[in-house]
Specification:
Blueprint: H1 4-7, E1 29-40, H2 43-50, H3 59-72, H4 74-77, E2 88-96, E3 101-112, H5 117-135, E4 143-153, E5 160-161
Antiparallel strand pairs: 1-3, 1-4, 2-3, 4-5
Helix pairs in contact: 3-5
């Protein structure tokens, strides 16, 4: 059996079974998380997206909305996440000529008993996948990569900033 106190895994009960964390006794606090991800593509694909000439429409605008919608439904996608009343979810998508491709960042904010890291990460993941879906007809070699938490603040565990952020 796994000792969850030793392993640091909070989603396991004393018998090692998956369990939603009880946050009932935790104090509300303002919690913010930021995440990022990248979609690398051929230069011509990036040019097509930036010119607004993709056959499926406004790739960046639709990916932004998809990321926002996904963040709001994170608890339906990740089995042990708590449903949250998000106060803010923002998704930014910017060209990155060094990839070449698009950099996606998301910021999630809530006042509550549990963090919003998964909401920020879900927003980035779904926005990146939406970019891929909308441009795959012209570039199947695109790569989604680098999805990670950049920072989080609030809560009992304190603040975190990823190295190199």
């Amino acid at each position: 059996m796994t000792d969850t106190k030793q392993s640091g895994l909070t989603h396991l009960d004393a018998a090692g079974a998956a369990s939603m964390v009880d946050v009932g006794d935790k104090a509300d606090s303002v919690r913010v998380a930021e995440a990022e991800g990248f979609v690398a593509m051929q230069p011509a694909t990036l040019d097509l997206i930036l010119a607004g000439e993709a056959k499926k429409g406004d790739v960046i605008g639709i990916a932004r909305i998809a990321g926002i919608m996904a963040a709001k439904r994170t608890h339906e996608l990740i089995p042990l996440c708590h449903p949250l009343m998000l106060e803010k979810i923002g998704v930014e998508i910017t060209p990155d000529a060094t990839l070449p491709g698009l950099r996606v960042t998301a910021l999630a904010k809530v006042s509550g008993k549990t963090g919003v890291e998964m909401e920020a990460l879900t927003a980035v993941s779904v926005a990146c996948l939406t970019i891929y879906d909308m441009a795959k007809a012209v570039d199947r070699s695109m790569r989604v990569s680098g999805i990670r938490l950049l920072s989080k603040s609030g809560g009992r565990s304190g603040d975190f900033t990823a190295a190199g952020s």
